[in-house]
Amino acid sequence: MPRKTGSYRITRFEGEQVRAFVPSPLPPKAPKLLLDANLETLHEKAQASLGQLKIAGKMVRSADWFLYGFVRKEAVITSQIEGTQATLRDVLSFEASADAEMSADVAEVCRYVEALQYARRELARRNGLPISTRLLCGAHQKLFRGPGSPGKQPGKIRTSQNWIGGSRPGNAQYVPPPAAEVATAMGQLEKWIHAEDPLPPLVRAGLAHVQFESIHPFLDGNGRIGRMLITLLLEHWQLLESPLLYLSLALKRRQDEYYDHLAAVRTKGDWEGWTGFYLECVQEAAADGVDMAQRIFALVEKDRRKVAEHPSATLSSVRLFDRLQSSPFITLQGAIDALDTSKPTAGSAIAALEDAGVLKETSGRKRGRIYAYQGYLRLLSRD
Ligand SMILES: Nc1ncnc2c1ncn2[C@@H]1O[C@H](COP(=O)(O)OP(=O)(O)OP(=O)(O)O)[C@@H](O)[C@H]1O
Ligand SMILES: [Mg+2]
Which residues are CB-contacts of 168 (< 8 A; sequence separation ≥ 6)? Predict the structure, then answer.
């Protein structure tokens, strides 16, 4: 299997000699990446679990609950891989209450959600951007917009040398290509994504991620944009119809292995090892998603019935329950807006959901109270 996956360029960084890696364009060559029996089995299993997740995404009435929750779950965990401390609860409760003060970490997760939404909108729009360097730059721009990220060059391919691990390129674990090579390398990746290739699309999405990480085109956020690339490709290649796979959970559980496999592609040409690891993670994450979807489905059906049959039920309380699928935290103002109704009507709808044991006040405040759908949150934050 020893295979050359790129070459080194000797450059200088602040007077010190540096060996920067320039990855060869995909696909893996000499030898080609072949799926042996073991990889075939892993691929079939991962495909099957993804297929089930795709079906779960079509479950009437509950699909929006999954989509809302799973996208945010992925956003939180992909940011946690980097050390961001925000929890799912922090993020969802912030989204519900415009007045809550937002920590930098919560802001970062919310910006990930916006970046993903931007990219999916572009891909869905007639004449929108295809999966491309420009699209990823656009997503990066959203991820780092605002005053919190000085020096990160939002939306820009880097113009200086970066490195991973270590205090300078000279002692780094990995030195990605010199800045002058980045645009070409990204162009080659883009071209391969849109070219014909006999490898299964699920595998190709994993290869694209590694290649992206090897190029490391941005000054920061490469992990998150590179994992988003997988999400976008799975949808583009119709393995899913919406971003329901929260792959980062499986990657985070095996973070050391994740990084080791990225490195081994470069140092040992081990595309096979990466592919096996990645397919296991996809399978695990998809199966977890299917299980979660079933639990959410059961919970929501049970609670909807509880709400409808409760003595204090009103038409508005049932409608409000269904609105919780786009925000499991709600304020009085949020309920007024969601139901397009008066303050008393919204207030009694909230009270009815509290009585039914679905909503619980969480702020402890007299004004600007925030109510949470605890059962759903508990399920969604379970790891
Ligand atoms: N040895 C390696 N070779 C190539 N890529 C690596 C290696 N180790 C880690 N990575 C990738 O680099 C990412 C970190 O890069 P960067 O800090 O630019 O991205 P980020 O989104 O800010 O961070 P993160 O992944 O940590 O969220 C990791 O998530 C991983 O995907
Ligand atoms: Mg980072």
Answer: 13, 14, 16
Mean pLDDT by 10 residues, the chain (383 residues): 91 94 98 98 98 91 89 97 92 80 89 98 98 98 87 95 95 97 98 98 99 98 98 98 97 98 97 98 98 95 96 95 93 96 98 97 91 96 87
Which domains are assigned to the chain?
Answer: 6-292 (1.10.3290.10), 310-381 (1.10.10.10)
Q: Which residues contact 41 (CB under 8 A, 6 or more apart)?
A: none
Q: Check if 284 has its Cβ closer than 6 Å to any atom of ligand 1.
A: no
Q: Is 220 in the pocket of ligand 1 (CB under 6 A)?
A: yes
- The sheet that has 359-361: what strands, in order across it? 329-330, 371-373, 359-361
Half-sphere exposure of 166 (CA within 13 A, CB side): 12
What count of Cα atoms within 13 Å lies in the side-chain half-sphere of residue 238? 0
pTM for this predicted structure: 0.96
Chain-centre distance for alpha carbon 241: 15
DSSP output for 122-178: HHHSTT---SSHHHHHHHHHHHT-STT-TTS-TT---SS---BSSSSGGG-SB----
* Planar angle of CA 153, 156, 160, nearest 5 degrees: 70
Question: Which residue type sits at 72?
Answer: R
Please work out whether the CB of residue 38 comes within 6 Å of at least one atom of ligand 1.
no
| CA-closest residue to ligand 1 atom 5 | 213
Gap from CA of 153 to ligand 2 centroid (Å): 13
Supply the mean pLDDT for the chain: 95
